[in-house]
Amino acid sequence: MATKTPAGEDPKKLERTGRVREIGSQAIWSLSSCKPGFGVDQLRDDNLETYWQSDGSQPHLVNIQFRRKTAVKTVCIYADYKADESYTPSRVSLRVGNNFHDLQEIRQLDLVEPGGWVHISLEDPGGKPLRTFMIQMAVLANHQNGRDTHLRQVRVYTPAEEMSLGNLPRFTTTDCLKYSTIR
Amino acid sequence: MIRVKKVQKIHFEHFIAAIWHALNHYAYRDAVFLAERLYFVTDDVLFLLATCYFRSSKPYRAYNLLKAHSWTSAQCRFLLAKCCLEMGKLSEAEQVVAGGILGRIRTTDEIVADFGDAACFSLAMLGQIYCKTDRGAKGAECFQKSLTLNPFLWTSFESLCENGQNPDPEQLFRLSATQNLNFCQSNHPLMCGTASNAADTTQETIELNRINLEASSIAKHPLHTPATSASVIDTTLSSAESITLLTGSTFSSRPVRTRPRSGRSLLGGSSLSPLTPSFGVLPLDTPSPGEQSGLPGLSTGSSVLDSNLVPNPKKVWSANMNTTQVLIPTSGVPPNTLTNAPPRRSTRLFISASSTAKVCGRAATLHYRGLSLLAILRDLGKAYRALCAYDCREAVRLFEQLPPQHYRTGWVLSQHGRAHFELADYSQAEKVFGELRYLDPRYMEGMEIYSTTLWHLQRDVALSALAQELTEMDLNSPQAWCVAGNCYSLQREHDVAIKFFKRAVQVDPTFAYAYTLLGHELVLTEELDKALPCFRNAVRINPRHYNAWYGLGLIYFKQEKCVLAEVHFRKALGINPQNSVLLCHVGVQHAQKKTEAALETFTKAIELDPKNPLCKFHRASVLFSIEKYKAALEELDELKEIVPKESLVYFLIGKVYKKLGLTHLALMNFSWAMDLDPKGVNNQIKEAIDKRYLPDEEEFAGEMDIESGQSTMTDGEDVQLHAAESDESL
């Protein structure tokens, strides 16, 4: 019996540390299929009660296209087995590239009865974030062999370099930070 | 037949009186209705009707009304210009005020001659128009002229300062002979005594006496019956009423000083005693013990005036059948004065009720009071001018020198706080603003500066409390939305912050700081293209807004357009040369190529503000990059004293030691840096430690000292374990 995928922490907490920034708003989102009323808006509305429900054949795809090559550090998805049962994704594949014809899979992960946020890190082993034009998230299989899938939220994070000039690292204490910029 | 006519005439006068009565009691709908009835009877009441419309916040109706008549009197034209300004029709307003026949533009003297009493206000309006339409020099001239006509126009002085002119408060806040006459020219006989009270040179005292004599001669005229009410008021009232202060900025009511009546007995005695002018009501006249002793009887004087405001009308009116002239033109006043009576409420400031017909001795007390007022205006003016010229230390000094009852007011505290803010002395600014919030929680101006101060200091609780209070208080003020935006920005919810800043812009498109904050927020979310127009808007509204110039420089810097960035930073520096943060940025920019220039800039910044740790840090890193390790180490040691908790300091020290080959010291410092920053915000520290022993192994292989090499390697392993542990904790 595979162990359940543990629920990660709320990515909002990550945001508050100031080290990451959500950049989904800078991208164009599209889905392979959806049921009316359960589409991109529900996927991106910051509300865990609403969800995207697909309406076609597998694999179900979420495409995220940026206007320019963007550094992406983490992708977070919220999936809840207790709420969605057979609609919960069990195998998710992440592909990146320049456009639809250029995608390459970089991560594939198996979820076992997830109960919340799942953080998918896109950093290379050296800790550098991935730079890409497009991310495609493919749901290859669902729990209990369900056909369609529910995804409640998807968030994309980029490392934030706030208030730093040039290559300078960010100061940690308020005493220094308050002098670092004029507002 | 004659009888009928007489009856009609009386009705007409009563009507007019009723309309002014309604206006003065803010019953605008009544006033409008009545005036509309009257308008269709006669055209003379054009001005009255237009005033009713304007005061009931319908400038467009007043505008349409006045527009329809081209041959109107000076005050109608003045009101028309005011309506145009209110509606944003700048060119038309300019045409009305300054445009002459056949399109010739009038000089300021002609305008003065034309508008007479309202000249100072028309000139102030014209100055505003010129400044908004990018004709700063002409605007400044207009403001100057308006100030010479009426030294109490603080907004003109403010505008002069904000435009970068350097007006001299000494010269401006002075009452000269001509000004006395101007005031006396105001048609209302009650105004004559006003200016005389404010004289403060011997020459002016002579003027004062002359006017006293004149006034006393006029005073004998039966027209002055309303004035008597004032004197009688004084005798009927005791000084027990608390003084409520007129000015909006003062808030706390001062306890009334029971003054010996003897000092004011003259008031009771004569029928034409001077009522102390309203500027006696200003906090001036509640002298603290250390204050000028030359203000006897002032408090009683002001209490007299306040009685008009204090709900004790019966007492006042019982003394005299006539109502107080402060509020209402009594029916005793003949109609010819009514048609050109200036708006009563605004003259409250100038009301001295009766003329200073009293003997010169009496004038002496008023003389002192006037002196004090103008003196205060001068002090405030000097401080404000210093602030606008960004000579902030001087401004702070001047503000701190003000007497306490003036200092503890909303406006002064807010400006004082701002002075500290511009110096980047945020903790001091926080204290001053905190005091302001304690003393006057309803004061809105300058709150956006306070919110940015809290943002810099990262006080999220205080900031969110402030945002909550202000948005509850007034949803229509841009300051409240700026504060709310800053609050969310501190919580790093940039989208919400952007939304609030946009709201602030919507609420008031002429509030430059909202644009600046919006621009900064957009820069933080890396939307540089959208941020550019925001900063440009801010600069368009206020060319001396150095924050916006800095923002533009920052954008170009991020886009690696170094020349443009430098130009904009220099521009910002030109406006505010004492800001060490700006200098720091310029220095960092230089550091990319010209290191000597960078070093100089940092030195200058350190001189300006020794408390700024960043300058030292940047200087140290520049020294490090040009391999002056000893000097760098000195700087860093000093820095350690200033900010002992900053991990980057230890990191840089570690790097320096590493370069110097003192690896154990380097390691020590790196581990301190890691301790101070366990989350590893800066991967560089980890990298530095990881990379540490690759070159070390080579170095020590080169040397004969294998033991020390071994010992450092074991140290290295310890550190690596330490680093690994911290990784796992992540």
From TrEMBL, chain A:
InterPro entries given in the database record? APC10/Doc1, APC_su10/DOC_dom, Galactose-bd-like_sf
Q: Where is the signal peptide?
A: none
Transmembrane ranges, per UniProt, are: none
Pfam families for this protein: ANAPC10
Recite the UniProt keywords alphabetically. Answer: Cell cycle, Cell division, Mitosis, Ubl conjugation pathway
DOC domain location is: 1-183
Question: Where does the source fall among the domains of life?
Answer: Eukaryota
What cellular component terms from Gene Ontology apply here? anaphase-promoting complex
Among the GO biological process terms of this entry, one is: anaphase-promoting complex-dependent catabolic process
Family to which this protein belongs:
Belongs to the APC10 family.
Q: How does it assemble?
A: The mammalian APC/C is composed at least of 14 distinct subunits ANAPC1, ANAPC2, CDC27/APC3, ANAPC4, ANAPC5, CDC16/APC6, ANAPC7, CDC23/APC8, ANAPC10, ANAPC11, CDC26/APC12, ANAPC13, ANAPC15 and ANAPC16 that assemble into a complex of at least 19 chains with a combined molecular mass of around 1.2 MDa; APC/C interacts with FZR1 and FBXO5. The C-terminus of APC10 binds to CDC27/APC3. Interacts with PIWIL1; interaction only takes place when PIWIL1 binds piRNA. Interacts with FBXO43; the interaction is direct.
Q: What does this protein do?
A: Component of the anaphase promoting complex/cyclosome (APC/C), a cell cycle-regulated E3 ubiquitin ligase that controls progression through mitosis and the G1 phase of the cell cycle. The APC/C complex acts by mediating ubiquitination and subsequent degradation of target proteins: it mainly mediates the formation of 'Lys-11'-linked polyubiquitin chains and, to a lower extent, the formation of 'Lys-48'- and 'Lys-63'-linked polyubiquitin chains. The APC/C complex catalyzes assembly of branched 'Lys-11'-/'Lys-48'-linked branched ubiquitin chains on target proteins. Component of the anaphase promoting complex/cyclosome (APC/C), a cell cycle-regulated E3 ubiquitin-protein ligase complex that controls progression through mitosis and the G1 phase of the cell cycle.
What name has this protein been given in UniProt?
Answer: Anaphase-promoting complex subunit 10
Organism field = Eptatretus burgeri
Automatic annotation (TrEMBL), chain B:
GO terms for cellular component: anaphase-promoting complex; cytoplasm
The record's annotation in Pfam families points to: ANAPC3, TPR_16, TPR_19, TPR_8
What Gene Ontology biological process does one annotation of this record name?
A: protein ubiquitination
TPR repeats sit at: 478-511, 512-545, 546-579, 647-680
- Which species is listed as the source? Eptatretus burgeri
Residues crossing the lipid bilayer are: none
Residue spans of biased composition, Low complexity class: 263-278
- Keyword Repressor on this protein? no
Coiled-coil regions in this chain?
Answer: none
Q: Where is this region: Disordered?
A: 251-300, 704-730
What family, per the record? Belongs to the APC3/CDC27 family.
Keywords for this protein: Nucleus, Repeat, TPR repeat
Report the PANTHER family cross-referenced here: CELL DIVISION CYCLE 16,23,27, CELL DIVISION CYCLE PROTEIN 27 HOMOLOG
Compartments reported by the entry: Nucleus
Protein's name according to its UniProt entry: Cell division cycle protein 27 homolog
